[in-house]
Amino acid sequence: MKIFLKFFFSVLILDFVIGLIVNLVYQATSNMNIILSFLNFMISVPLSFVSRDYPYYANGSTLFIIMLVLLNTFLQTAIIYFVWKLIIKSRR
């Protein structure tokens, strides 16, 4: 559980930083926009498996947006944790 929480907070911080960079550099060159749009898409992929209508940056109330961000972060962390567990088991 400790490692899951470490992964969770690491992913949460990384998502926040990428989201912040996307918003700050949105008006940059078109090449940068392509890269940032792809990163933004990749971050919201786990949540789009739940519903295609909900990227993690969807509009709505503050509570709803926080819930989507946390759900998306939880799904990303679960995938990372599962892969980490598989790697650890395969090394034994």
Please explain how this structure is put together:
- This protein is an all-alpha fold and 92 residues long.
- It has one domain.
- Helix content is 80%, strand content 0%.
- It has three helices and no strands.
- It has helices at 2-24, 30-50, 62-91.
- Helix 2 packs across helix 3.
- The longest helix is centred in the C-terminal third of the chain and has 30 residues, at 62-91.
- The protein is globular, with a radius of gyration of 15 Å.
- The model has no long low-confidence stretch (mean pLDDT 80).
What topology does this entry show?
Blueprint (H helix, E strand, L loop, with lengths): L1 H23 L5 H21 L11 H30 L1
Helix pairs in contact: 1-2, 1-3, 2-3
Inertia-based shape? globular
Q: How would a textbook summarize the main sheet?
A: none
Q: Return the string of H and E elements.
A: HHH
Q: Mean of the pLDDT scores?
A: 80
Instruction: Outline the low-pLDDT stretches.
Output: none
Structural domain tally = 1
